[in-house]
Design a protein that fits this description.
- With 627 residues, the chain is α/β, with parallel strands linked by helices.
- It folds into two domains: 290 residues, Alpha-Beta Barrel (TIM Barrel); 258 residues, TIM Barrel (Alpha-Beta Barrel), CATH 3.20.20.220.
- Helices cover 43% and strands 15% of the residues.
- The protein contains 23 helices and 21 strands.
- Strands 1-10-7-6-5-4-3-2 form an eight-stranded parallel sheet. An eight-stranded parallel beta barrel has the order 14-15-16-17-18-19-20-21, surrounded by five helices. A three-stranded antiparallel sheet has the order 11-12-13.
């Protein structure tokens, strides 16, 4: 939903809006025990609460939250304060307003709504209508006192979020509503819901801003934000991370993430689509102040095509931080076509440039460059990607096998790719050296594909290497992963692909198929376990050159099955006429257009002319339909 004034006015600046940080952490640091009712302090020690509000405003917060996280009937009842619910909530709003007026700042007051502290049916005894009534009481008190918006935060149960949002809408349809969930270490809510499901559900319930707060530190929050934004790309988003996972030291709760650690994440959150940035447990005014300084010294160029974003900091353009065009296209509804090319065996790149030019002119969106395909010695794909991007002006996807690379080599190669502006990566295990022309070559590896994806998306893209050391500015890799659509491997592949998705994969390339029904069956099986596929899938299409080629693939290449009717068509076509194979590939692509986000074309015997013909046919078909 579109947030109403005055929140929308803050969004209009284009920069993220800064919210405040933890209240409870600071109250505890000032001598208030965690067993005390923090909400009662609005009445008994208002100067203490006001002082914390003032510090956050001075740090740069544009939204401050009322000290009412637990000011609902169920939690107040435990302290014998339920009869003072309205007074406690109204006093919190009045306190915040007085501090804002004294600061002469334009700051919004967010009425803070936390969980009720009881379980809702079907997981508890409290019925939804009882929960909604409890939320209505608190929200009514906050709205009557004059809050600018409502923030429903640190929720673990979608049923409870739904009742809170509905209560807010019933109190006043115009109030802007932020709804935010918290997650466990496995990136799921306490009740097992994924960020994708949460984002879609909260948007459906009617929240104006979708949020993630508390949970772990900035790294986890960034990962979850990206999944949420991918699920509901047109929404507004809030992030308020903890200062890391809490640790108990000497009887005290300590949070490890320093304000400096939050500095770089402020930009990463912005790039990932956050509209409101704040802090949760363990964060202080220092965390907010340092994020404000970082955001103020940074601007975004939003004039780039396809929604791409580039960061300009201290008058220095940092193009490496902007999403690739491919990344932007992944967020669109376009049907995309990517084509695989093999690097040359020798020094000459003339054929590569010629082939890439032909494919680009035909209308391909991106070119994949394989790394030592079939474990045969070839030119480094890093160089080939760089040459294609410079000479042909089309983006590439670098194939990045884990096999044969230790951690030093992996990380060095990643830095090399990024420095060459090769930032679309396809992570794959790679072909075993035993099948290639150097069968005795070392085949060891330190990371499996899901581990490498995690290293890239949760490490390098956050500015840290595998050991946790800083690498300077974060990278901005877009990472793909592999999927085998062999029906006999569905069970294991579903588990494997989910690991890769949770690690942060942005897109999927599959092995070649010759029966589009396997795609539908795989999606159905996956959705039954994890819900709808959350990232774009590009189905592999390898045009058949002739009957002999079809027979070889069917009988000798693991993972490829060619149905009898297709092999029969190829046999009847006779000779080396590629027409039938091209027609079969074209028909499959047209069928797949309703199922997936794109196709991954693999030329047979480097026949790029056949691929260009297929692409042009598909493009012409689209034009004919549109006219």
């Amino acid at each position: 939903m579109e947030p109403t004034k005055p929140l929308h006015d803050l969004f209009a600046s284009g920069k993220p809006v800064l919210a405040d940080g933890a209240m409870g952490t600071l109250l505890n640091q000032r001598g208030i025990g965690y067993d005390y009712c923090f909400d009662e302090l609005n009445i008994t020690r208002p100067a203490l609460v006001a002082e914390i509000h003032r510090e956050y405003i001075e740090a740069g917060a544009q939204i401050i939250q009322t000290n009412t996280f637990g000011a609902n009937r169920y939690k107040l009842q435990k302290h014998g304060l339920d009869k003072q619910l309205e007074k406690i909530n109204a006093s919190a709003v009045d306190l915040a307003r007085r501090v804002i007026m004294a600061s002469f700042s334009k700051v919004l007051i967010a009425g803070d709504i936390g969980p009720l502290g009881v379980r809702l049916a079907p997981f508890g005894r409290v019925q939804p209508e009882e929960a909604r009534q409890a939320f209505t009481e608190q929200i009514n008190a906050l709205v009557s006192a004059g809050v600018d918006l409502i923030i429903i935060e640190t929720m673990t149960d979608l049923y409870e979020v739904r009742e809170a949002i509905q209560a807010a809408r019933e109190v006043t349809p115009a109030i802007p509503i932020i709804a935010s969930m918290t997650y466990t270490r496995d990136d799921r809510t306490l009740l097992g819901d994924t960020p994708v499901k949460v984002a879609r559900s909260m948007a459906e319930f009617g929240a104006d801003v979708l949020g993630v707060n508390c949970s772990g530190g900035p790294d986890q929050i960034l990962r979850i934000l990206r999944q949420m934004r991918q699920a509901v790309p047109d929404s507004y988003f809030l992030v308020m991370p903890n200062a890391g996972w809490p640790q108990q030291t000497g009887g005290r709760i300590m949070y490890p993430a320093s304000p400096e650690y939050f500095r770089e994440y402020a930009i990463a959150f912005w790039q990932a689509g956050a509209n409101i940035i704040g802090g949760c447990c363990g964060t202080t005014p220092q965390h907010i102040a340092i994020m404000r300084e970082k955001l103020e010294s940074t601007t975004l160029d939003v004039s780039l095509p396809n929604g791409a974003i580039s960061v300009l900091e201290s008058d220095e353009v940092s193009a490496a931080q902007s999403p690739t065009n491919f990344a932007s296209r992944l967020r669109s509804d376009d049907f995309l076509i990517t084509v695989e090319m093999d690097p040359p065996r020798g020094l000459s790149t003339n054929k590569v440039i010629a082939g890439a030019s032909l494919i680009a002119e035909a209308g391909a969106d991106v070119i994949n460059v394989a790394d030592s395909p079939m474990a045969r010695m070839r030119m480094s794909p890093w160089a080939v990607c760089n040459i294609i991007q410079k000479e042909v002006k089309i983006e590439t996807v670098l194939h990045f096998p884990t096999r044969g690379r230790n951690l030093l080599r992996v990380q060095g190669d990643l830095l090399a790719a990024h420095s060459l502006n090769v930032r679309n990566i396809f992570v794959v295990m790679g072909d075993p050296t035993a099948i290639g022309d150097y069968p005795d070559a070392m085949d060891n590896y330190d990371l499996v594909p899901s581990g490498l994806i995690k290293l890239i998306k949760q490490g390098f893209n956050a500015g840290f290497d595998h050991a946790g050391a800083e690498i300077g500015q974060p990278t901005s890799f877009v990472v793909g992963c592999a999927l085998d659509l062999n029906p006999g491997r569905f069970n294991s592949e579903i588990k494997n692909i989910q690991k890769k998705i949770l690690a942060g994969a942005d897109f999927i390339l599959t092995q070649p198929i010759y029966d589009t029904r396997v795609v539908e069956e795989f999606f159905d099986r996956y959705e039954a376990i994890y819900g709808p596929m959350p990232i774009p899938v590009f189905v592999g299409i390898l045009p058949l050159a002739n009957y002999r080629h079809a027979t070889f693939l069917h009988h000798e290449v693991p993972g490829i099955t060619i149905p009898d009717d297709i092999r029969s068509k190829m046999e009847k076509s006779g000779g080396d006429d590629p027409t039938t194979g091209i027609a079969i590939a074209r028909d499959m692509i047209l069928e797949l257009k309703e199922l997936v986000r794109g196709v991954y074309l693999i030329p047979a015997f480097n026949r790029y002319d056949h691929i260009a013909e297929i692409i042009e046919t598909i493009k012409q078909h689209d034009k004919d339909i549109n006219h």
